[in-house]
Amino acid sequence: MTLESTVFPIPSEIVVPPAAYHAAATGELNVFLLILFATIGACLGATINYTVSLLVGKPIVYAFADSKVGHLLLLNKEKVQKAERYFNAHGAVSTFIGRLIPVIRHLISIPAGLAKMPFGRFIAFTALGAGIWNCFLAALGYYLQRVLPEDQLVETVTKYSHEVGYGLLALVVLVIGYLIFKSKRSKKKDKEAEE
Predict the structure, then answer these.
(1) pTM score, two decimals?
(2) What does the CA dihedral 27, 33, 39, 45 come to, rounded to 10 degrees?
(3) Both ends of the chain: CA-CA distance in Å?
(4) Helical ranges in 57-102 per DSSP H
(5) What is the DSSP code (8-state) at residue 106?
(6) What is the distance between the alpha carbons of residues 146 and 21, in angstroms, rounded to a whole number?
(7) Minimum mean pLDDT among 74-78, 95-99, 138-142, 168-172: which range?
(8) How far from 169 is each of 26, 34, 96, 133, CA to CA, in Å?
(9) Long-range contacts, stretch 170-179, CB < 8 angstroms, 24+ apart
């Protein structure tokens, strides 16, 4: 999970659901500890990306993304730019939302470091987003243990996790939109009351 949250393309879908599947099948693993440690691992990996980006700066991050090693890790300048645009458009909350979006998930820490986001806010949003994602993946693995043979697990989880990730993103966007609308409406009422 630490590697998954860095620039290494290791999807969390091949770690958490099989572990939860095993927890449901054997009872040898505690699913709550699984979620906790998966989230801690995600926070460690995200902290690595954040710290490196904070220390080396934009030119070196972009040069690495376009290097042969960066390409081996499935990185390129466009992916880093996409993560940075997403971060700039959505502010600090993008660290939380970005943890729910495939591809952006492991890169969202880079623009947070480049933007010098306060570490406390960064780690809080990262832990919240990673925790929700890990809960979903663990629940999926736990459920699939009842209906799916183990040899089909990774393929099925990978297929549906992207779709559910986008669904979670849509839900978060709707909630944020509602909160913004409610805040603007409240300010408008206060302004009318003052007049």
Answers:
(1) 0.69
(2) -90
(3) 55
(4) 58-65, 68-72, 77-90, 93-98
(5) T
(6) 9
(7) 168-172
(8) 33, 23, 10, 11
(9) 172/96, 172/97, 172/100, 173/97, 176/93
